[in-house]
């Protein structure tokens, strides 16, 4: 089994049932999620040795988080146990014209307070082929940004391929700080994943004529964004997801992979959404799986988009689909007939 | 805080979960709703001192009803406690070609059996700016029709603005009786809210060339309905909601405000519906909020329609949205992106 | 009350709640269903004396199955009690591009192991007007195929009309075996129900230029299929359902009734699906109800399609709608307005 | 199958989940119950042809009530459909020192408003061996009291045995009225079921030295109550249940059958209660089953008490146990070992 | 209405359903609780103007907390909105030999980070008769300890009676610090509430020969504890609760009120527990209600213990009982008969 | 980590919620359990490398079973995937005098149909210290009995300690066959676990004067049973659990360990039961954990009984407790105070 390592925070996700608003709920669905953990679950489902690195408290809530990963076969042996709390995010599902709402309560989590000595990268990277993180991880705290920098350097030393999803979160840090820190980290990154907002927010790199809220996207602009990113950091590949938000229920979804020489666009899917959180992460996982297995660029982007399209039909952060299911969709069957 | 008073019935709403039919259910969601109480909840959410006037039994089911309002900040201090029962309505949610179904069991409720002495309008109207009721209230019983007449007269004495949603319910009274009673009450009304059916059912006022069941509406016809209503009762304003029912899941929604001089039409929203009950009430509340705050006619109708559009994405009778959320939608953001 | 007899298997249906995947579920909805039992429930709802014939264990799980039918008025007095187990099917609801998934665990069920002596057709057919089965029943085991052959012969002896839904299930038998067995049985059948796949899979009868997975159907091709079937077996009527699968959530639905002389096409419904399992069975029941009552061909096919359109808005296998509701839809009201 | 007829009201029972109080609940369990219907369900479970006679609305809530009986095999063919509403009772389960609470909302139910012509006793009593009602039925309204009197007279004409559970409910009528009406009815009754309170409340017949609230009962006093009742009405048998309420969770339970010549006491069971509503009805059903089958007095009282002891371990009004289970307990096995 | 003010933290309580362990749960009951808020809810239920003072975030989770109090009539107008987070406690219910488990995640809550200027005691204490807090409030942070000291001083200035429940929590502060801070605060306290552990942990005051874990208590020792406390701080009254823990399901419960001259012991209740969290708070509320209304010492302690006995039969932190229910139990009816 | 291997079947457990009967349930809790898997989960919780060996289908229901073990850290790498079905057991929880009920539907499961070549014992036993199975495993089929014999022989070859819980199930095989097969297997067993019934049912070895159903046990008799077993098979130790069934809710629980020289009795626990299924398995796991770690006989039996006492307070088959929790109870704290 090929070993892939991801590093970040795993949070408790508290969500009202169905389309209830927070103020209507006296019972919350308690699942777990976080950008890099979500990627690890996808990869474990695809049969890789997916190791998630983080820090979680010793108490039962920390154990619930670990169990949520073990259940799907993620390698949790590098998770350090300690610290005070599991980060939380409250998540209310939108419908029609009402947008989804996320409230973070993640400050002072065990991973945000972690120190350099909590992680033994020698052991973690033993036999690893790929390392993945997102812009959320270094945004957690200065400590974690340092650990992240250490991790990418250690990865590069061992010829481990590094991928990063820019994933800008304005509630965690300013654009300025993000630009500074991510600028340092991206020097060690081989594959960059982003949406147009990320590139602009983090590095001021912008595509022309695109209005995020209008739900219409200018595909050509994305190529120039990818070119600028590649120029700046020398990425082997830049993948950009293209979301058209028609309503909280209906989105169009596609993506582009730019390889330095050429841009490959995927099919576009019209999705009726069950849960869109983790959509980007499932794209990243599809991309990593394809590249680790040496798929060509077109096949890679089709696999990644089909995988993440399916994620939108699944509750929770984790993308619980098989390679076979992704390939069936990428191969053209999206009609939703019953499989008996 | 501006004080608004509404008067009517608050019922226990018993509904199967999700899309289950009555005969499939051995557990029912137990929430509360009623046209005028729904308006009060909206207004309390918008920060007004919204007082709901009614009568409810002293027992625990009556208390559940009171608590459902207190929870959202409605002023319940004018609710008289006594009588035998809380009115009930059973509500089965439709889907696709299957319509929603409502079964009333509201006869002999505490409010339907209330007497004139149950309400002290001097105290109730102290400091009030606005009084609102709907055609359901006088339809409950002759007693309540009398009380209602008393209320509007007392309101007028105090220069309190009066609004009325015609809200014709054929299971409560005949068109003839409705016309008679509402005709008396409307003399004291400043703002009238209706849909096309109401105007026709109650006063025989009709727009041409409209087929309610076809889902297609002739907007121009609504102006003539508003004009006729205004002519008959001297309303300061007439607001008409325009619903196009494509299926139980999908409706188009817009409205018109006619101010005597001009008709203002709102944007039209294509809605994927979570729960349409209370949609009209949330429109009324948006209208009252806007007028109490002196918004212009176009802003008023846009606010009212955006508010009620959002209601269709929310479970239960009550519209649980903030001013900020309504304004975001009225201002153009209906794309449903996640708000982090 | 007209008596209709159906014969087949009733299974325990275990399904995750809402859109959860199997691997996310630690609680399963436990309802019951099976092609011929589903037909019986529909017919009981329409007021017929609908008798379901099968074999179920004596234990409580068998009793749950019986109760699920009694609840809706099905005549269960001809169900033999005995054998070891209730067949099971696990059912995961699809969404958007993710198809629904069915896993069968029905081998060695009481009915699959039943013997000829378990059923007294003299008593069962007393007063009966119609006998219905589907291609699933003879596929259960050679025993049951023999019993089925006995049943149709006994029915014919008594001038009971026989209908059969081809319902090919590739997990139960091969196309070759299906063709052989169904070929024998169809000699005794008056009305044949099928979809295009069935005719091809069972008898190699095919319509040209149709791609099932594309979701587009060539209506003309269906006429030729019906003609070929009629030619081969001398059916009085052949009904073919026409499903266009746009996604797991959205399907178009219509059907054709071919009477030997002419093909009658129904309206086509654009459905937003709640649960599509049992859709075909509800069509068959609508057809039987209409024919038993002597409706004309066009009215028959409209009733059957409207009935099965409504089924897609209902959870579970059973179509829980009234004649009145079907007629309202067939008569043109599909706008989904609230019925108060 | 021996046919037993019971006559009374079937209500919708709305109950918070587990031990929640009404004011904590936004979802209610919706089951059905009523003294005479509960008896019918028990008897159907024991394999008798148990017919329940009542009146229920035509709408879906009425249908839910009918289905709840059909599910367990009760003969519902004599239930008249019509009238406005299903009676309701709200039921909050007590725990420890907190008593259970019942709120009735049953006025104006279809059965309470029924008229003499709603019931054809000729047809109802065809082939019947036994007729059962309780003191609740005539308390519903004067109409129903008249119908009840008619029913017992018709029963007597046909040599049908009549049993009556006194079941006094102070919220339905006064002691005086109860005494008057029940006095007339009891002339036609063969077997009388009561608890000590009933005899006192209805007929002023009292056992000495018993304090209901203390939870301690003077068994000897019951014999004198039975003797007085027998003397007054010439009953063939009087059965009295003996409940010792230690807390809402723990009760002792036993009973006495007095046959005119001798009193037979049952074993006493120490019960840890799941749901005590319907406990008395399940006792009545056990008694009727035993007497219909000619069991001796001691066996009769042991069967009835064991049956009702088991009821206390079952949620809802209906006693869902088999003859085999009752006999196992009556025969001495109350240790609760797993039955594999 | 007499006005009582309480001051402290209101937390989100996340609890698995029924007896599930944390690691078994993917859905958590989300209610709210906190020692002083629990007292306020009890007092609002008893009809007082109970104002709860705290600080909660502006976001929806903060709003849920406010609504949980408004629902039961608590005066929330002095709750300052702001800060980052709602404190959380995870709560797993024990059973039999398995103890309940509480995990706190309350650091950095809005109230813990509140500043002196967040509260206007002039306004808060307008018309107030009583002020209550517990040892948890000053333990939240040094800030809050200062605010608490300010509050008691302001209360004393206005002749408002002050009560304090020692409520020592070892996870919030050390015994040493507790002793120091509580020592200062208790100078302004009139009525002190404690259990034996509290007095020892906070002030080193100890009763002889008592083993908390053995479940056996030496009542006489409590008198000496109360005497020592009274001597040290000049309390008008000291109330001590006496819990005997037999298992997680079964506890005995009683209490003592020492008035400086005499010790009054209550009845002892053997409780079968539904939820013991908030048991002490409901005792405090019963005490305050009794004293505010001038009940004598024996009646006071009986009311307080009966109230808190009932709390143990109720889910969640809040004691949702009426005066009538408490008085019925205190008056001797604990047999748990159904109240119809 | 010490490696322990267990071998057997893992079944889907379908159970109504709370105390509902099967016939009341339209939703079933879906967890997993099986004697040897239950032992593995306990041991994984105690920190051992617990490997469970079995065969499960490749489909999603098989995957659910695997995930249920991975979640708690069980080593599932030796589970062969294939075959047709997951065995099922339906489980209805008893209450008071109503016993729990188990219905098996496990015939033809993947493991029951497994063949010798499905398991590579060389690899499985690499590094293992202990092998455990129960009498259920060889009872599944002749195939599996052969595999089991192979396994114990392979274990013995490698000096792996072997334990066996006799666990007689009369629905799986006859006493005669059990005696024959178990007799062969027990020659390779070091530690035997049983209850009195097992020894009698399988080997005809009986303790005098004991009536299983009476709930009273003669402890002395157990010593003679252990002696006879030891004499016959040369066991190093025989452990016998002593259950006194007072009701479905209340049991007393203790055990004895006989080491050839002496019998060690544990404390006896009076348990209020949440779920007793898996109680024996959790005892076995406690025993293995203690013996693997070289605990003395008295400490061993106390640990095993405390562990299994706690199991009775936990829902589902798996005993989800930590070493710390077991030791706290074994060390004397069973009072159930809240642990904050």
Which helices and strands occur, and which strands form pairs?
The structure is a homohexamer of 340-residue chains.
Chain A: E1 3-7, E2 11-16, E3 27-33, H1 35-45, E4 49-53, E5 55-56, H2 60-70, E6 80-81, E7 88-92, E8 101-105, H3 121-124, E9 128-134, H4 136-139, H5 142-157, E10 161-165, H6 175-186, E11 191-194, H7 196-203, H8 219-233, E12 237-245, E13 250-258, E14 263-265, E15 269-272, H9 279-292, H10 297-311, H11 323-330
Number of strands of chain A: 15
Number of helices of chain A: 11
| Distance between the amino and carboxyl termini of chain A | 31 Å
N-to-C SSE series of chain A?
EEEHEEHEEEHEHHEHEHHEEEEHHH
Helix content of chain A: 25-40%
CA radius of gyration of chain A: 19 Å
Largest sheet of chain A: 9 strands, mixed
Strand content of chain A: 15-25%
Largest interface: A-B, 31 and 28 residues
**Assembly classification:** homohexamer
Average pLDDT number of chain A:
95
Poorly predicted runs of chain A are none
Shape of chain A: globular
Structural class of chain A: alpha/beta
């Amino acid at each position: 089994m090929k070993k892939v390592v991801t590093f970040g925070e795993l949070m408790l996700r508290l969500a009202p049932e169905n389309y209830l608003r927070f103020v209507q709920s006296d019972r919350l669905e308690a699942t777990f999620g976080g950008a890099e953990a979500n990627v690890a679950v996808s990869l474990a489902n695809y049969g890789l040795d997916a190791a998630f690195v983080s820090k979680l408290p010793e108490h039962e809530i920390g154990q619930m988080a670990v169990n949520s990963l073990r259940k799907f076969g993620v390698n949790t042996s590098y998770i350090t146990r300690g610290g005070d709390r599991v980060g939380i995010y409250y998540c209310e599902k939108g419908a029609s014209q009402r947008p989804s709402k996320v409230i973070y309560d993640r400050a002072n989590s065990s991973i945000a307070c972690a120190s350099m000595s909590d992680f033994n990268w020698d052991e973690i990277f033993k036999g690893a082929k790929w390392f993945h993180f997102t812009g959320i991880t270094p945004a957690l705290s200065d400590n974690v940004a340092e650990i992240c920098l250490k991790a990418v350097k250690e990865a590069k030393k061992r010829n481990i391929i590094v991928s990063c999803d820019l994933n800008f979160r304005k509630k965690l840090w300013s654009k300025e700080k993000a630009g500074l820190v991510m600028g340092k980290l991206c020097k060690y990154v081989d594959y960059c994943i982003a949406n147009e907002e990320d590139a602009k927010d983090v590095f001021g790199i912008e595509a022309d004529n695109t209005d995020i809220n209008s739900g219409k996207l200018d595909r050509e602009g994305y190529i120039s964004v990818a070119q600028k990113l590649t120029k700046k950091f020398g990425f082997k590949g830049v993948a950009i997801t293209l979301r058209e938000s028609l309503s909280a229920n209906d989105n169009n979804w596609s993506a582009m992979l730019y390889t330095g020489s050429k841009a490959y666009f995927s099919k576009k899917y019209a999705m009726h959404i069950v849960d869109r959180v983790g959509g980007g992460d499932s794209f990243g996982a599809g991309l990593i799986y394809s590249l680790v297995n040496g798929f060509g660029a077109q096949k890679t982007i089709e696999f990644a988009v089909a995988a993440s399209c399916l994620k939108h039909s699944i509750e929770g952060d984790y993308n619980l689909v098989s390679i076979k299911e992704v390939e069936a969709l990428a191969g053209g069957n999206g009609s939703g007939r019953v499989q008996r």
